[in-house]
């Protein structure tokens, strides 16, 4: 089973790679080659930073967005987006102006606006992952979050929430795709167990 871990300059690339290996992944290829992405059995898109900059970096790799569209929504390969990698699944992000995303899961990524003045932005640290819709990869637990923007999506596509001065999307899923706002690579036992379930997932 080959896994394409997309290299587009994301800051958490190698920590995600190490976590996938610790979770039992063996044939993990860090790649910026669209042809390999087309052939891989599953795909992981990491990401930290600003939505627009990350989408720009991904789009700057010739043929990469096209290869992702062919492999993931097209061919139905299991896909995981992590943090900004999850946010890029949206229609658009509103960080530093509106930037179109991949458009795989309808919704918009907007700045966190907690109603509780004690809830600081960025949302940083451990918080509950609360399943909202049954999904084989999502179980209750605590995970590590670090973000200032959040994905607002249809309840039909949201499979987990957390709370940070109000409800915040923790995970979205549609068919063969799942995206998580938390960092499994920083979430210790909970994160490694989640990645193991992803590696075993047959959607």
Structural description of this entry:
With 203 residues, the protein is α/β, with parallel strands linked by helices. It has a single domain (3-200), classed as Class I glutamine amidotransferase (GATase) domain (Rossmann fold), CATH 3.40.50. Helices cover 26% and strands 32% of the residues. The protein has helices spanning 13-22, 34-39, 51-59, 64-74, 84-87, 188-200, and strands at 3-6, 28-31, 42-45, 79-82, 92-93, 99-100, 107-111, 123-131, 141-147, 149-153, 158-163, 167-174, 177-180. The strands form two sheets. It has a nine-stranded mixed β-sheet with strand order 2-1-3-4-13-12-11-8-9, sandwiched between helices. Helix 1 (13-22) links the parallel strand 1 and strand 2 (28-31). The chain is globular and about 50 Å long. It starts with a strand and ends with a helix. The model has no long low-confidence stretch (mean pLDDT 95).
Put the structure in a nutshell.
This protein is α/β, with parallel strands linked by helices and 203 residues long. 26% of the residues lie in helices and 32% in strands.
Strand residues, percent: 25-35%
Name of the CATH architecture: 3-Layer(aba) Sandwich
CATH topology: Rossmann fold
Distance between the termini: 15 Å
Secondary structural class = alpha/beta
- Total beta-strand segments: 13
Largest sheet properties = 9 strands, mixed
Give the helices and strands as they follow along the chain.
EHEHEHHEHEEEEEEEEEH
CATH classification, class level: Alpha Beta
Domain count: the total is 1
Strand order of the biggest β-sheet: 2-1-3-4-13-12-11-8-9
Low-confidence stretches: none
Helix content: 25-40%
Radius of gyration, in angstroms, nearest whole number: 15 Å
Number of helices: 6
Mean pLDDT: 95
Overall, the morphology is: globular
What is the name of the CATH superfamily? Answer: Class I glutamine amidotransferase (GATase) domain
